[in-house]
Specification:
With about 150 residues, the protein is an alpha+beta fold. It has two domains: about 1-75, no CATH class; about 85-135, GCC-box Binding Domain (2-Layer Sandwich), CATH 3.30.730. About 20% of the residues lie in helices and about 30% in strands. It is built from three helices and eleven strands; from the N terminus they run βββββαβββαβββα. The strands form four sheets. A three-stranded mixed β-sheet has the order 1-2-7. The two termini are about 30 Å apart. The relative contact order is 0.12.
Length: about 150
């Protein structure tokens, strides 16, 4: 574990990729990821540990950008990685929108568009409908509300 007094970065004891030493000068970007700066270039710790190939992202299964244990990291396309984001700032649930008629439920589609799933009276009902849809129709990357 690395600690700077405010945030802790979690890694496996055997996290070094292919026997290389992990950088000792880990820094933090604005509250999201641990990185190392070598030669003027920032390298994200999760990419080093997961050995993510170029052209792919590294997804944190639990959404915690500082949890860099191998079991929490997986290679992902950009669209898969975007499915694993939580609700927008200040919102309780993902995939729902308040309207005068009630709470509208929309689910992600593969082409970046959204599918209308209905309008219900409460945010909790809407969140459960969203969760049910993504559990059946989206990949393992889709984050649910509950």
């Amino acid at each position: 574990m690395f600690e700077d007094g405010l945030r802790i970065v979690k890694i496996n004891a055997d996290a070094s990729p292919k026997g290389k030493a992990l950088p000792k000068d880990c820094l933090w970007t604005p509250g999201v990821y641990a990185c190392s700066k070598t030669g003027g270039k920032a390298t994200y710790l999760h990419r080093l540990i997961a050995e993510t190939p170029d052209g792919l992202d590294t997804d944190h299964r639990d959404g915690d950008g500082l949890n860099n244990r191998r079991r929490n990291l997986r290679p992902a396309t950009e669209s898969q990685n975007l499915l694993n984001v939580g609700p927008r700032k200040g919102k309780r649930f993902k995939g729902i929108f308040a309207r005068p008629s009630g709470f509208v439920v929309r689910a992600p589609l593969a082409n970046g568009k959204q599918k209308y799933l209905g309008t219900v009276k409460t945010a909790e009902q809407a969140a459960m409908i969203y969760d049910s849809y993504v559990a059946e129709n989206c990949s393992e990357f889709a984050r649910k509300n509950f």
